[in-house]
Amino acid sequence: MRRVFLTVLDAVGCGECPDSADYGDAGANTWGHVVDTAHPSLPNFARLGLGQISGTHYPPDAQAVGGFGRCREVSAGKDTTTGHWEIAGLRLATPFPTFPDGFPADFIRRFEEAIDHRVIGNKAASGTAILEELGEESRVNATPIVYTSADSVFQIACHEEVFPREELYRFCTIAREMLQGELGVGRVIARPYVGEKGSFTRTAGRRDFSLPPIGRTLLDAVKEAGMESLGVGKIEDIFEHQGLTGSNHAAGNPACIDAWMEYMRRDFDGLCFTNLVDTDMLWGHRRDPQGFAEALEYIDGKLPEIMALMGEEDLLIFTADHGCDPTFRGTDHTREYIPLLCWHRGMTKAVDLGTRSTYADIAATCAEWLGLEDRWGAVPFARELM
């Protein structure tokens, strides 16, 4: 068996890039500031080389055995879809559109007609704040909440007792069909919630409705080669199922790690691509460095189990898709370098992979490891790990 286990620690960037100031993110450093503020214990990540990565602020482990480095994003933007697509080889010259002042009134009117309900909100807001402000009005009056953020998203929040999940997903499907061209946001996101006024909480029923990838990705290459191309968590949403042979839409880091390890126990050749979302959704956007640190500690604590399931020809890669510095201003993603941590059973020393010029080097490396010809104009580093 020859396999790659590629895992995105969602929003765990490791320091500002040369162009961070262009995005208003000069000074952002997700991993470094979480370490400085909350002091997480991450011995297993350190053993892979975490402390040797510039920007993480974690003490280096002199006995580290693993490949370490960081990657700079070429694509314009700092959102989930853009980051994951570039990791999979697909770079975007033009960012997805954003709507900091809300969506055009004529679009909202047409959307209301299409779903046969009036909507409220239509502004940029954090998910928790919008529920505090409009959750009760939406619940009482059966008016879906529409909102966005600094990212290219159209989000719809509905109380599950008023609009069952399938109805909310129908609203999102309609929105996805309508949001094309100049209004073509990267993702339409279903945000179901439950509870009473003052204690509304979002549920695990979130679903993302993305634009399909505009080109060939790592997932396509693996599938077309007759190998397994498996997604865990929201990977299936980000790629609109394109290039996948199987998927487990687990919700939350514990469930996603369990699903990932279940795939590890199977015999297959190919790729398992996992997204661990809690650092972004639960702690980054809510500006909670302590919660962020505890999420990292949970993943670190699972690493021995994960590594024990690795086969002789398996490659493990940890990275991120952008930053979301919980100590920074605002509640949005931050434009940062992403970390790179790699390991396989044959490694006997630490390998400095340096600063990669594009996230797509990861796709090229996965392809090289699996014996595929695709490189997406990027530079693989699989041989360096040998």
The CATH architecture of the largest domain can be given as 3-Layer(aba) Sandwich
Taken from the alpha-carbon principal axes, the silhouette is: globular
* Sheet with the most strands, sense and barrel status: 8 strands, mixed
CATH superfamily of the largest domain: Alkaline Phosphatase, subunit A
Number of helices: 13
State the strand order across the main sheet. Answer: 10-9-11-1-12-13-2-14
* Low-pLDDT residue spans: none
CATH class of the largest domain: Alpha Beta
The succession of helices and strands, N to C, reads EHHEHHEHEEHEEEHEHEHEHHEEEHH
Supply Rg: 20 Å
Gap between N and C termini: 17 Å
| CATH fold node name of the largest domain | Alkaline Phosphatase, subunit A
Mean pLDDT: 96
The count of strands amounts to 14
Q: How helical, in percent, are the residues?
A: 25-40%
Number of domains: 2
Structural class: alpha/beta
Strand content: 15-25%
What does this structure look like?
- The chain is an alpha/beta fold.
- Helices cover 33% and strands 19% of the residues.
- It has 13 helices and 14 strands.
- It has helices spanning 30-38, 43-48, 80-87, 105-115, 127-141, 165-178, 218-224, 235-238, 253-264, 278-284, 289-308, 360-369, 382-385, and strands at residues 3-9, 67-71, 120-124, 145-148, 153-159, 187-194, 201-202, 207-210, 228-232, 246-248, 270-276, 314-319, 338-343, 351-356.
- Strand 6 and strand 7 form a beta hairpin.
- Helix 1 crosses helix 11, helix 9 (253-264) runs parallel beside helix 11 and helix 10 (278-284) packs antiparallel against helix 11.
- The longest helix has 20 residues, at 289-308.
- The chain starts with a strand and ends with a helix.
